[in-house]
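Today's session is about reading a structure prediction critically. Students often jump straight to the picture, but the first step is always the sequence itself: look for stretches that repeat, for charged clusters, for runs of hydrophobic residues. Only then move on to the predicted structure, which in these notes is written as discrete structure tokens rather than atom positions. Here is the chain we will use throughout the hour.
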Amino acid sequence: MGTSKRLAPYYDMQAQHQAILAAAKRGPLQSLTDRELALREQPLTVYPHALQRRVRAWVRFGPEAIRVEAKIVRSTPLAAGIEFRAQAHTFRCWVWGNAVELEGD
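Below is the predicted structure for this chain, in token form.
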């Protein structure tokens, strides 16, 4: 008995959620600092819901790096504010812009 191609995206999502929750147990989600963001010197763009793009981004929970599917909710010229979910948990952090890849690129 094979697996359903129709359910493959669901199983991929479940596997990612489990990986995120496992990583979260090993350490806190890290985010760029205020000094790194330099929001007083850099312009900040906040995207309304309709303009939030789907991305894949590298994030770090404690010492562990993991790639997640997220949405970009704000940005500066050098950094991206992202949001991603794992089951009932929503995570938000700032990452360097080069840690983010637009889906479909």
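Discussion point for the tutorial: The mean pLDDT is 91.
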